[in-house]
Amino acid sequence: MHSLTASSGPALVGVVRKDWASQNSIALSWSEVERLPSDIVDYEVKYFEKEQEQLSYSSTRTKAPSVVVTGLRPSTVYVFHVRVRTAAGYTAYSPNFEFATVAEDPDIADQGQVLVVVTASVGGFSLLVILTLFLLITGRCQGYIKARMKSEEKRRTRFHSGHVPFSGIKTYVDPDTYEDPTQAVEEFAKEIDPSYICIERVIGAGEFGEVCSGRLRIPGRMDIAVAIKTLKGGYMEQQRQDFLREASIMGQFDNPNIIRLEGVVTKSRPVMIVVEYMENGALDSFLRTHEGQFTVLQLVGMLRGIAVAMTYLSDMGYIHRDIAARNILVDENLVCKVSDFGMSRVLEDDEPEAAYTATGGKIPIRWTAPEAIAYGKFSTVSDVWSYGIVMWEVMSYGERPYWEMSNQDVILSIEEGYRLPAPMGCPVTLHQLMLHCWQKEANQRPRFNNVLSFLDKLIINPSSLLTLVNDVQSFPDSPEDMPDYPLFISIGDWLDSIKMSQYKNNFLAAGYTTLDSISTMSLDDIRRIGICLIGHQRRIISSIQSLRLQLHHIQHSGFQV
Ligand code: ADE
C-alpha cells in the first residue's frame, strides 16, 4: 500500500466498526476524533480486497465519522483504514480492519444491480450485435474499440483488483473512486468554449455561486436555453472539486427524465456547469403556485416521469439520497426531470432540509427512509421511500410532508407506525402505492420498475383513478380514541394561521367550537358547513390532517393535561 499524499501527525482514528454489510456494501463508523469539528476537513477511507492487496486500492471521503462503502464484491474480505484530513494535512492511518461482504442472494436486488443483470440479459446481447454491425458498417469500429479499451483500462485501475462490475453494461462510476477527480470530469463532461455561452439573468443562488439562465450557441448547432451554475471566485481546490463532482455524475446519465448536462467550463474563470433550462423551475414551488389546476392524470404523468428517471438510476446502480419535489425540475411541457446530484456522497450544505442525525450524517429527515436515518443504510429502496414522499407532495400540490411537525416528532411518529394520510382528492390506488413505498421493512418495498409499471397501468386505465380517498383519513386509532381536551388555540387563530378566517362563522354556527371537535371533521362535514371552493377545502382538510397528527402524537408521547 502506498499513498500519494504524505501523512503527518498521529492517527486520530482508533477503532473502525462495521455497522452492517450487504452483498455489495459495508457500512463503517468510528468515534468522532477529539478535535474541534472545524479542524477536521473530512475523513479518508482507504480499502482494498484482502487477497489483492498489492494490486490496487480505492478510497472514499466522508465528512461524518461513518461511511457506506458501495460497489464491493459479494463474499469478499476487504481491508479498511481511515485517516483524518485537518487544515494542516493528513494524519496517519488507523490500524487495518478486515470486514467481509455477505454472500450473494439471488432474491434480493442490492442497489439495483440484479436489475442491471436482468436488463442486460434481455436486451444487452441483441443491442451489442446491432451496435457492432453498425460500427463495422460505418467504419468506426477501430476507433470506438480503442476508446472503449482506454476507458475500460482506466476503469480497471479504479475498481480494485481489476474487477469491472458487469462489464459491457452501463453502470454508474463513483467519481470519488478516481485518484484525480479532474479525470472524472474530463471523462464524463464536455468542455465548452465560454464564448458560446450567453448569460442572461440570475435565477437563483446555489451553494457554490449564482445560478443563471442563458443561451448556449455552439456553431453549427441550434442554440438552446440553458441554466448555468457558477463557482464564485476565491474558492479552494476542494470546493472546485466538490462543485464539478455533480457534473461528473450528471454526465454519465442519458435519460429523458434526468436533467441533461450540456458541458462544463473548467479551463477559464468562472468555472461553470451548463445544463438544459427547465422553464417551470422546481416542482414543489411550481405546484404551490398552480394549486388545483391539474387533472389527476396530469399529476400521475409527472410522477411517471420521475419513476422513469428513478428506474434508470437504480438500474445503473446509482442511489440519489435526496429525492424530493424541490430537486425535480419541470419544463414547459410539464415534463419532470430529476436533478441535484450533489448528495450521493454527503449532503450539500445548501440543502435546506438537511439535519444532523445521531450518526453524524446530514439528512433531509422527512424524505428519508427510517433505516437510512437510523444507521445510514441508503439503497435504491430508501430512494423508493423518498419517491413515496414525492408522490404525496405532488398529490397535495406541494404541501410540506408532516406539515410543521418537528423532525424528531416525525421520526417518532414513523417509528410508531404513523404514515401520511391521503391528500384530498387523491385516488385510493395512489395512496396505497405510497403506503407500499413506506413499508418499514426495506425489502418489502416495491422496486422502481414495479412502481413504473403500476403507474403505467393506471394511466392506460384511468377509471382506476376515479375512486378518491374522499375523507379525512383515519389513524390507526379511531376518532373515539382522540383525547377530549381542547387544544390551546382558538378556532379563530387556527383559521387565521391558514388564511381562512372568512369561514370562522361557518364553523361556529355549525357548533364546532373546539379544535378537537374540528379534528374529527370529514370532507362532507366541510362541504355541509358551506365551504365550496375546492382549493379552500384542500387547505382546510390538509390542516385538519395536521391537527390530527399533532393530537395523535401528543397522545402517544404521553402528554398530560
Ligand atoms: N434552477 C436550477 N437549475 C435550473 C434549470 N436547469 N432550469 C431552470 N431553473 C433552474
Automatic annotation (TrEMBL):
Q: Does the keyword Transferase apply?
A: yes
Membrane topology category? Single-pass type I membrane protein
Q: Where in the cell is it found?
A: Membrane
Q: Might you give the EC number(s) for this enzyme?
A: 2.7.10.1
What's one Pfam family here? fn3
Coiled-coil region(s):
none
EC top class named in words? transferase
Residue ranges of every copy of the Protein kinase domain listed in the record: 197-459
Per the record, the GO terms for biological process are: axon guidance
Q: Which UniProt keywords apply?
A: ATP-binding, Kinase, Membrane, Nucleotide-binding, Receptor, Transferase, Transmembrane, Transmembrane helix, Tyrosine-protein kinase
Q: Which residues cross the membrane?
A: 114-139
Q: Which residues form the SAM domain?
A: 490-550
Fibronectin type-III domain segment(s): 9-105
Reaction(s) catalyzed by this protein? L-tyrosyl-[protein] + ATP = O-phospho-L-tyrosyl-[protein] + ADP + H(+)
What domain of life is recorded for the organism?
Eukaryota
Query: Where does it mainly reside?
Result: membrane
**What is this protein's name?**
receptor protein-tyrosine kinase
